[in-house]
Specification:
Strand content: 15-25%
Number of strands: 12
Strand order of the largest sheet: 1-12-10-11
Number of helices: 10
Radius of gyration: 20 Å
Bound molecules: iron/sulfur cluster
Distance between the termini: 6 Å
Shape: flat
Helix content: 40-55%
Largest sheet: 4 strands, parallel
Order of helices and strands: EHEHEEHEHEHEHEHEHEHEEH
Length: 275
């Protein structure tokens, strides 16, 4: 069986940057998981003494707090600064962008619509920057009941699919006088998705590697399974099952934006052994 990696996969710019920042700040603590990959978080803890703090109140004056790639709500950031915590901001610049847009457009009186998952940390952060609140929607049906003004600004969660975002904007544009659409979907997501789509059209079995709670890995998996019914979302090599590869000729591999190369390599090694 041949094993082929997607043309683009794995760590994106924002995650590489956040890990570098964490490694440069030994003896610090991240507020919430730095990235959606528990194995990488363990490595940072063991090798760099970068721990994980879930409760904002556990940070004291002088502590070093690393802010995760997804960002945090504005009031929480303000609390850390108020308490003279040493804040090291590893928020991905592609996440800072929709935060700024929400702040600026809401100051100008636009109603803010965010296409994304209300419970996702990125969206909780982005929403907090809208001065007068924001509407978070996941599909067109959510929009139908909203009472929006004439002037609307729309942003999307960075990991959303462009096709789905277009459905939201196509619904809004003919119904409102002014709709400002900001493309806040990040290129890393596009590139990994396009490559996974291409490879899954050819593969007999597709392995998508990434944290079970990583939204961009779940998206990659949903693209893969559309084209290749034998697609599997795994976190590491231990999740592999040999029966998946029986009589298969081409195994495609993709990985989410928070999946380190060392995990991908272990998966490849194990698949090689199985086949
Ligand atoms: S997927 Fe995009 S937005 Fe998210 S951390 Fe990576 S580069 Fe930043």
């Amino acid at each position: 069986m041949k094993i082929e990696l997607a043309e683009k996969y794995g760590f994106c710019f924002g995650v590489k940057r956040a890990i570098k920042i964490a490694e440069e700040n030994k003896n610090s603590s991240t507020y919430g998981p730095l990235i959606h990959n528990s194995k990488e978080i363990e490595r940072l803890n063991l090798d760099f003494n970068v721990s994980l703090t879930e409760d904002l109140n556990d940070f004291n004056t002088g502590d070093k707090a690393v802010i995760r790639t997804h960002g945090i709500p504005k009031n929480e950031l303000a609390k850390l600064y108020d308490e003279s915590v040493d804040v090291i901001d590893a928020t991905c610049p592609f996440v800072t962008k929709p935060q700024q847009i929400c702040e600026e457009m809401s100051e100008e009186g636009y109603s803010i619509v965010i296409f994304g998952d209300e419970k996702h940390p990125e969206i909780r952060g982005v929403k907090s920057y809208a001065k007068h609140g924001a509407y978070v929607v996941t599909d067109v049906s959510d929009l139908k009941s909203l009472k929006l003004g004439d002037r609307i600004a729309v942003v999307a969660q960075t990991t959303r699919r462009a096709e789905d975002y277009l459905q939201i904007t196509n619904f809004l544009i003919p119904r409102h006088k002014e709709v400002r659409v900001f493309n806040t979907i990040c290129n890393a997501t596009f590139e990994n998705q396009d490559a996974a789509r291409k490879l899954s059209r050819e593969a007999d079995v597709m392995i998508v590697i990434g944290g079970k709670n990583s939204s961009n890995t779940k998206q990659l998996y949903s693209i893969a399974v559309e084209n290749c019914s034998n697609s599997y979302h795994i976190e590491c090599e231990d999740d592999l099952e040999s029966k998946w590869f029986k009589d298969k000729k081409l195994c495609g591999i993709s990985a989410g934006a928070s999946t380190p190369d060392w995990i991908i390599q272990k998966v490849i090694d194990k698949i090689e052994n199985i086949s």
